Amino acid sequence: MMDRLLRRCRIKSRLFRECLAEFFGVYILILFGCGSVAQVTTSQNTKGEYLSINLGFALGTTFGIYVAKGVSGAHLNPAVSLTLCVLGRFSWTCLPFYVCSQLLGAFLAAATVALQYYDAIMDFTGGHLTVSGATATAGIFSTYPADYLSLWGGVVDQIIGTAALLVCVLALGDPRNTPAPPGLEPVLVGAAVLVIGISMGSNSGYAINPARDFGPRLFSYIAGWGDEVFRAGHGWWWVPVFVTCVGALLGALLYELLIGVHHPDSEPEEAEDLTAVLQQTVELDGMQPKFDFFKENGKDGIFSITSADTG
Amino acid sequence: MMDRLLRRCRIKSRLFRECLAEFFGVYILILFGCGSVAQVTTSQNTKGEYLSINLGFALGTTFGIYVAKGVSGAHLNPAVSLTLCVLGRFSWTCLPFYVCSQLLGAFLAAATVALQYYDAIMDFTGGHLTVSGATATAGIFSTYPADYLSLWGGVVDQIIGTAALLVCVLALGDPRNTPAPPGLEPVLVGAAVLVIGISMGSNSGYAINPARDFGPRLFSYIAGWGDEVFRAGHGWWWVPVFVTCVGALLGALLYELLIGVHHPDSEPEEAEDLTAVLQQTVELDGMQPKFDFFKENGKDGIFSITSADTG
Amino acid sequence: MMDRLLRRCRIKSRLFRECLAEFFGVYILILFGCGSVAQVTTSQNTKGEYLSINLGFALGTTFGIYVAKGVSGAHLNPAVSLTLCVLGRFSWTCLPFYVCSQLLGAFLAAATVALQYYDAIMDFTGGHLTVSGATATAGIFSTYPADYLSLWGGVVDQIIGTAALLVCVLALGDPRNTPAPPGLEPVLVGAAVLVIGISMGSNSGYAINPARDFGPRLFSYIAGWGDEVFRAGHGWWWVPVFVTCVGALLGALLYELLIGVHHPDSEPEEAEDLTAVLQQTVELDGMQPKFDFFKENGKDGIFSITSADTG
Amino acid sequence: MMDRLLRRCRIKSRLFRECLAEFFGVYILILFGCGSVAQVTTSQNTKGEYLSINLGFALGTTFGIYVAKGVSGAHLNPAVSLTLCVLGRFSWTCLPFYVCSQLLGAFLAAATVALQYYDAIMDFTGGHLTVSGATATAGIFSTYPADYLSLWGGVVDQIIGTAALLVCVLALGDPRNTPAPPGLEPVLVGAAVLVIGISMGSNSGYAINPARDFGPRLFSYIAGWGDEVFRAGHGWWWVPVFVTCVGALLGALLYELLIGVHHPDSEPEEAEDLTAVLQQTVELDGMQPKFDFFKENGKDGIFSITSADTG
């Protein structure tokens, strides 16, 4: 019965389905990620530590990808979507829809975290929602640079961090290198986020994702932290939004220049044959996800990037 | 010889076998989970920390599922069993049997933890078994809200936590999304419990499972902690029992509405053909667990949910 | 050239090969396990913490199994070997050879740890090798009970701990339940050791393995810690040696009674057919390890237990 | 369009491609590894702890291997390349090219870490770049022995550590033992690095890799830490460079003598047949990485070691 009710809600537009998946994937990412910061902050390190926050964003990424990957390819990051467009593996037409869905998911997840930790935040701050000071809580939602960090240092930090992310993601999805085993890509992308947090987190909180940073920042602006969230760190807010895109492009360029383009060609005729054989195998194997993998064999594809109409 | 003796104990009732598996699975979950709290509490954080407790429940879940999954589908959580009934993937008739087995497993595991840590608890408390105070030990068995948490805040906390669990579990088991690799579902569900503990644990101890909370609470009531275990936190005990069920249903609804129902239909004829082919493959592959996976291909199934007689 | 020299050393006796593998597997287990205790002890918690020790023994177990599993089945634990004999899955004739190899591996690994940490131990203790006190170092090698633990409490602790280990190991290797994916059994058995250390480690250091405890204890007796290593804890030494065997048998009994014996029979004729098909598949798949898995399909086997001549 | 531009940069020399992969793999390893030390050092343990550093090098190794393995086999360590030459599994002609690429990658990664943490290092040290003292930062780049460690003790430490690494790596890649599942070798080699850091890290910082230590040391020498980086620890610098090679050879010898050479021969005719069947399967499976695995079946190979022209 419930099944039938649910089926009435089915949406036939492929792009809409994909946007829902991107929305929900980022929502899960931020729910777990910012949730872990809220837990560590409001419990004053008694119920977690810096490593918990790294694990929170890493596993948040993992489960965000499990939620979305079969539907939208699980970019979950505007900088990733943009890079895939530049690489010709995603459609420019879909880009704005994906980005908006990602931002909306991050915004609503930040609201959910604020709801779940409302009592804790009120108790910890005494009701004063501040961006800096001993009981600052704006850091639950978005990133702020360390006091010592110059603007230029922050730009370098975000470029290197996002480039490292893209190198890892492209390597994990490159079928001619050592791709992640089918079904474990979400875990390994999560591990990449973990190691970035462990090795590149102390300067400015490893945003490496415009949606992860800007959506929750917007929420904290509206919800009572005020315009200090945009003014803090000499107007830090735009660095995680725009510089991460530069970093992502740089990382993709590096991976392609140093590894990707040098893979020896398989001759086209043979490749076609192979695809036919593969398709057959896949049908026999019955594991749908493997399918996406092979479909893109011919164009150096990141794993299971599907799109409404890749131009 | 021992083999033959054991075989005499074989039980032919499918439901009874499944209930034994649910019992033993929850027993293992709580043995490791509550055991890790006992270790951290009685050693006063010298032999573990908050993260150990998160890992204890996460790996407890993992091994509880390994113990039960091939037999009963490893719900290990009344809120999960209930949700599967509502989704039409589990039989209402079996529900009470599963729930009782889960509660019994949790109760006996709590007793085992108390037995294993008897000397430690006596040494730590000086023999005073209390629910609050510096040497409180009731928290070994069941969850209690933080001082700052309002009842309404606790309800929201348990709804969000259990909803997040169900979203992750349904995504991991959705064969048309990115399902967990066969044989690794228990690890990934454990990872979901880990991240919930890391990001949603400080408010009220992430019960997210009525059996996990109520079985041990009942044990602590009987074993000497007294009726304070039910009165503490303004009568907190019912929140993890009933509110988690609401959260589980909400999470399932969200996953289905945002992801599940929108998967494009495979046409029925083709699907049947495919099933035949799959079955063939599975026989060739010889990995029994894969079988469950595919059997349910047609109905959006959570992984390997089997039941005595799904109505 | 080196290849040829090496090949001259080939040993043809299957039992001898297996004993070498058990020796080397336990050596690796203890090298990493006791090494992590040495690191945490001599660095006074600055280069690790209790969780490091848990990870050290867990990953030590993982790599010990990777080293030995393809040759000897990687028991790496006399209590496991004994239990497999009682279950009829390992030969009583081979048992003493396996146990001696395991003990020798643990002894030599303890010596290696002492060699690697010689300077550190001398610096930390000022040359006084003691079993108790602020600079006690005997705990690097073998387990000692907490001050509060009664003998009876220690017996219960070791029974529950070793029983939990066997339940996990038997579940992971039960082909009719949810077996671990081929090639990942070592990781999952390591995870079982991790969670036992996290939830059952504070009472007496989770020996759960006679060789892990007695081999290094013997070394520390000879190497200068004196007979206090046998007298400490009211003569604790025999508990990890003998009581763990009782625990292992209890765990195996529980798993078989609650899960193992109730698996529905496949009829014998069909099973034979299936085996033939499987063997064919395995040849096609070319993954040798899978082979062991299926060979034992018919007798409820723990994964890849091979033996010189199982009676 | 970008695709076409990239394709113009394609390099046809196999050795050059492999050197690029070794370069980039070590770069990623050191970027994450030394980055995690920089984070823990400059944040004074508030944004990480010793375990973070262990995880940083472990996951750095994992992603370094994912980046390079499909192209060069991902040695990422001159001691590993050398050992493979001695074992006859890698070409002596290629050895110097691999080693130089690895050193260059480590050098440039150290420079990148210094760039990313420039502000942090300046703030932490007040601009005084020192090798020892309360604000020492040379340890971000390369290893230094603990004060108590004798030279002989350091030599033993590096021999045991690197031998342990090789035993684990050879076991994981031995197709006649329990090889790591295809696609997860990078994770498991990372786990080996993790456990070595947890159990053998406190004496001298587990270099176990000449490139990991010497490349960054050279950078720190040039970048302002001065010749103290070579004089510290009574001229410690050569131990991680040369002694690790001895350790690697010892580890390989031990694995081969105790496990490797004793694997029973498959008769040659049968083996050939099997290879044919495998190749067929592999084509059906379409997972290129598996291919490398089997190609070397006949010569006891470490996983996917490919070389320009193995003599």
Automatic annotation (TrEMBL), chains A, B, C, D:
The keyword Membrane applies. GO terms for cellular component: basolateral plasma membrane. It is a multi-pass membrane protein. Keywords: Membrane, Transmembrane, Transmembrane helix, Transport. InterPro entries: Aquaporin-like (IPR023271), MIP (IPR000425), MIP/Aquaporin (IPR050363), MIP_CS (IPR022357). The chain crosses the membrane at residues 20-38, 50-68, 97-118, 151-172, 184-208, 235-255. Signal peptide: none annotated. It catalyses: H2O(in) = H2O(out); urea(in) = urea(out); glycerol(in) = glycerol(out). Gene3D superfamilies: Glycerol uptake facilitator protein. One of its GO terms (molecular function) is water channel activity. It is found in: Membrane. It holds the Pfam family MIP. PROSITE patterns: MIP, PROKAR_LIPOPROTEIN. The keyword Secreted does not apply. PANTHER family: AQUAPORIN OR AQUAGLYCEROPORIN RELATED, AQUAPORIN-10. Belongs to the MIP/aquaporin (TC 1.A.8) family. This is Aquaporin 10b.
